[in-house]
Amino acid sequence: MKRALLTLSALLALGLALANGPDDEYNVGDQQATVTERITLTIPQRVALHLTEDEWVLDLNNPPLGNQATGEGCFLVPKDFEGTLEDALEAALAGDLRPMDAYPAAKDLDGDGTLENHEKGTLICINQKVLQKFCNNGQGCELDLKVTRTLGGPTYGKLGVKDIAEDIGHERFVEIIPGTNDDGDPLELLKVLGNRLPGWLDDLIIEAFWFDGTEVAGTYEFNFLFQLAAL
Questions:
Q1: How many domains does one find in the chain?
Q2: Which domain of life is it from (predicted)?
Q3: Which of 10, 135, 223, 228 is within CB 3.0–4.6 Å of 148 for a Cys-Cys bond?
């Protein structure tokens, strides 16, 4: 029996030796045995973007009625309003502006047969979408917007874009100045330095046209190019 056990041990050792190649580890001890596994992991650098909406068609023949709950559509900016494009956008998002579906912006809202100052003014129209982005570069990443006017002149009123990334407490508003930075100049929306983005980061993108009386009739077209780059 003892010889049989020794023979069995020898066969097992021989089998292990044959099964393991020259790069495999084999260890036998009286009370403990250890082997080591070496792992090589390669993580490629990646940047990625996904936009939940790739077109906005705004026809002032039939302006979309503003929705105060969602902050989308068109709203009346009263005649006596004093403030910037960003101020008007914030007022609309806060529910402080009345929904409007007429251009020029005027409607007898209380039905008394007259147009009072709070029932006429200018029109701001808002569209929202989500930009999902990924960047695993440890040095950081930058998100830029390039607006290129491809049809029509620089007489479309005012245009602005707001980027909100709640996960990292970030907000930025950029105004596109007609004839100045609507020719593809990069506008910085977000920059993260010395750190990666937290996985897929969702940014709320809010676009606003304010027809403040400087607009001229015509058809205008724009390309909005969102670009995410590792730093």
A1: 1
A2: Bacteria
A3: 223
Can you give the residue range of the structural domain that contains 165? Answer: 47-230
Average confidence (pLDDT) over 2-28: 55
Q: Is residue 5 part of a domain?
A: no
Q: How far is CA 129 from CA 17, 58, 77, in A?
A: 62, 15, 23
- Measuring CA to CA, how many Å separate 77 from each of 18, 83, 89, 92? 84, 10, 10, 9
Q: Tell me whether strands 47-51 and 98-99 are parallel, antiparallel or unpaired.
A: unpaired
Rounded alpha-carbon distances, angstroms, from residue 35 to 11, 12, 21: 21, 17, 14
Q: Which residue type does 102 have?
A: A
Give the CB-side neighbour count of residue 175, counting CA atoms within 13 A: 13
Write the pLDDT tens digit of every residue in 144-166. 999 999 999 999 999 999 999 99
| Tally of CA atoms within 13 A in the half-sphere of 203 that contains its CB | 29
